[in-house]
Amino acid sequence: MKTLRKWSRILHRDIGYFFIGTTLIYAISGIALNHMSDWNPNYSVSLKEFNTSINLNNNSNTKENVLLLLDNIDSRKNYKKHYFPNENKIKIFLKGGSSVVVNINSGNGVTEYLKKRPLFFEVNYLHYNPNNIWKWFSDAFAAALILFAITSFFMVKGKKGITGRGGIYTALGFLIPILFLILFM
Asked: In whole angstroms, what is the distance from residue 178 CA to residue 75 CA?
């Protein structure tokens, strides 16, 4: 048992050091993604209202008029496409996910600018397993977390270990999520 405890501490410590960065990435993005209803963790969104007298009715000149509008409020270089969600509105899509909506009767419009949040956008992107290489790295990380959990059973002996306080905390760590699922799902 002494050898098992020794190797548990060694593996737990050394693999833990290796995965500190990954743990922080998943922790930060997990918190950010848990609060998507409170804020957009990937983008900051800003709105800018304007009024225009440019004719944006659906006709043969619409695209050229849309480009004229963009010269005034943004840049025609950002134009992607446009469409009419109904007979009174035009929606213009811009590069980078931003958009413009204009009431073609009143000329009142709103530009919605999206800007990637530094760090959060990239960290959240990794949380979604963007490619095969990251998928395998994430699997290795998940396996390391399993190893951390198992080695922690053998690191401390006695009343503070798995047969004492550690066992109580471990049981609670299993029971609380299960009770949550039973009570709130």
From this structure: 53
* CB neighbour class for 77 (10 Å; exposed up to 12, middle 13-18, buried from 19): exposed
Determine how many CB atoms are found less than 10 A away from the CB of residue 100. Answer: 25
pLDDT at 126: 84
Report how far apart the first and last C-alpha atoms of the chain are (Å, whole number): 41
Task: Give the residues across from 102 on adjacent strands.
Answer: 90, 109
* DSSP bridge partners of 111: 48, 100
Tens digit of pLDDT for each residue in 89-145? 999 999 989 999 999 999 999 999 999 998 888 888 888 878 889 889 989 999 998
CA 136-177-145 angle, to 5 degrees, is 30
What the block records as the tokens of 126 is 């990794």
Write down how long the chain is.
185
3-state SS assignment for residue 88: coil
CA distance 61 to 30: 47
- Give per-residue pLDDT as tens, 2-28: 888 888 888 888 888 888 888 888 888
